[in-house]
TrEMBL record:
One of its GO terms (molecular function) is medium-chain fatty acid-CoA ligase activity. Keywords: Ligase. Belongs to the ATP-dependent AMP-binding enzyme family. SUPFAM superfamilies: Acetyl-CoA synthetase-like. GO terms for biological process: fatty acid metabolic process. PANTHER family: ACYL-COA SYNTHETASE, MEDIUM-CHAIN ACYL-COA LIGASE ACSF2, MITOCHONDRIAL. This is Fatty-acyl-CoA synthase.
Length: 514
């Protein structure tokens, strides 16, 4: 690992990891997958055996172990075994194309790839020259035959734990390097914001190759000795049913998942009384969706963050004012925030500006990308989030938009998120996304892609009348385009780059700005 390429970051105050001999309720369930339950004692035993298997295959401190597959017990076992060796986990998105997987295996320099049986064809198509361990009989036989790792190396909070590839919505994906301290401090931040106890039974819905799936509910629940149930895929009806069947207490999700559950035929009859924590992030949930959950006795709490912050930065406190449904709340315990305005760092305030973040949960840099790492920080310590926010005097923040998504039309800033929020107020509109297109007169104008609810209709005149009633005229998109579905990545975020490419075809050659 090119340590010179990374910022040094420590996690003061936590000391060293607890003794590996420590046990908290070893016979309590740690992980559940279908009919299978693994206790904490069994998880520890299998992790130590798998670590020995990985070591026999040449994995040592600092090496990268890639994992490709859906959420499963084997994902946790691979992560924990990798970390026990002082190696670095490198989870991969199984929804990617073979060429993308090949790129990430090469970029990370993976020493070994562990993969699920259902990704075998993808692994073969990727054609990467990396030793593999396939989950199934081979994996189980290797664990059963191994002796538990006898003398694991010392692992500190400053050591890299995981490479998490960014979504790649702009160019080649890059891997954020999170340390054990980053993950630990994020867990502490989460526990300061939400109540987690050892009797909790959490669903792990979001993919474990992303920071939300790992950091928001999953690791805090395991930290407190609760039970985590990974789901291989999201199905709104199945999740609703499972909440009642298993007495699920918590999960994290993206807004589209929450909306799909509200709109599912099983919503009204679903038993939700055991739920006490539902966290979401990635984008604001529609107000009507948040209120639908609240009407069922569940306050959904919006969190704001990014992979580089492990991921938490802001979160809405439990029991907060329901009249602020789109706010991201207040900063986490160990999070400092500031703003970047005209190239200068300034305190947070009500005027929109780019958010800066620092704290022991902020990553140490991008894998083998020293220049991009340096460019990501102001004064060497404040991470540039790329998000425009405004912060009220009481510390509550609203995310206005991405810096790169702001449309500058005739010298005026247009924030697509503001326009989108107005569009989805119309009942026929299920979702909307606004992107910039070139314009000969104004430089840039907006193009809105609008997804209607199934069976609904709305005219362009009605859309424009609604927009004119709520927005200044310069903010109203020049182009309104119907679409069956908005393109999204694995975390549910709209792929705006793809929409920009589509929108380019809307502009007549004569109207393109020079």
């Amino acid at each position: 690992m090119d340590s010179a390429a990374l910022r040094h970051a420590s996690a003061p105050g936590l000391g060293s990891w607890p003794s590996r001999r420590a046990r908290i309720a070893p016979q309590r369930p740690a992980l559940v997958e279908g009919e299978r339950t693994l206790t904490y004692a069994e998880l520890a035993e299998r992790t130590a055996r798998l670590a020995a298997v990985l070591a026999e295959r040449g994995v040592g401190p600092g090496d990268r172990v890639a994992y490709l597959g859906v959420n499963a017990i084997s994902v946790f076992e691979t992560y924990f075994a990798t970390w026990l060796l002082g190696a670095i986990a490198a989870p991969l998105n199984y929804r990617l194309a073979a060429a993308e997987i090949r790129y990430m295996l090469g970029d990370s320099g993976a020493a070994l790839l562990v993969h699920s049986a259902d990704t075998a064809a993808l692994v073969e198509a990727a054609g990467a020259d990396v030793p593999v361990l396939r989950v199934g009989p081979e994996y189980e036989d290797a664990i059963a035959a191994a002796e538990p790792l006898a003398d694991p190396p010392v692992v500190t909070l400053d050591d890299p734990a995981i490479l998490l590839y960014t979504s790649g919505t702009t160019g080649r994906p890059k891997a954020a390097v999170l340390t054990h301290g980053n993950l630990t401090w994020n867990t502490v931040n989460q526990l300061a914001h939400v109540d987690v106890v050892s009797t909790d039974h959490a669903l792990c819905i979001s993919p474990l190759f992303h920071c939300v799936g790992l950091g928001q509910v999953t690791l805090p629940t395991l930290f407190k000795g609760g039970c985590v149930e990974p789901l291989a895929s999201f199905d709104a009806g199945r999740v609703l049913a499972r909440i009642g069947e298993a007495g699920i207490t918590s999960f994290s999700a993206v807004p589209t998942m929450l909306q799909m559950m509200v709109e599912h035929p099983g919503w009204e009859s679903a038993k939700l009384d055991t739920l006490h924590t539902v966290l979401y992030g990635g984008s604001p949930v529609q107000e009507r969706v948040a209120r639908a959950w609240l009407d069922r006795g569940v306050q959904v709490q919006q969190g704001y963050g990014m992979t580089e912050a492990s991921p938490g930065v802001y979160m809405v406190p439990r029991g907060a004012d329901a009249d602020r449904p789109v706010s991201v709340g207040v900063p986490h315990l160990a999070t400092e925030v500031a703003m970047l305005r005209d190239g200068e760092r300034v305190p947070v305030g009500p005027e929109p500006a780019e958010l800066l973040v620092r704290g022991p949960h902020v990553f140490i840099g991008y894998w083998n990308r020293p220049q991009e790492t340096e460019a990501a920080f102001v004064d060497g310590e404040w991470f540039r989030t790329g998000d425009v926010v405004r912060v009220a005097p009481d510390g509550w923040a609203d995310v206005v938009d991405r810096v790169k998504d702001v449309i500058i039309s005739g010298g005026e800033n247009i924030y697509p998120a503001e326009v989108e929020a107005v569009l989805v107020q119309l009942d026929p509109v299920a979702d909307a996304a606004v992107v910039a297109v070139p314009d000969a007169r104004w430089g840039e104008v907006g193009a809105a892609y609008i997804q209607l609810r199934e069976g609904s209709e709305v005219s362009e005149d009605d859309l424009r009348a609604h927009l004119e009633a709520h927005l200044a005229r310069y903010k109203i998109p020049k182009y309104l385009v119907r679409t069956d579905a908005l393109p999204r990545n694995a975390t549910g975020k709209v792929r705006r780059v793809e929409l920009r490419h589509r929108a380019a075809d809307l502009v007549p050659d004569a109207e393109r700005s020079s």
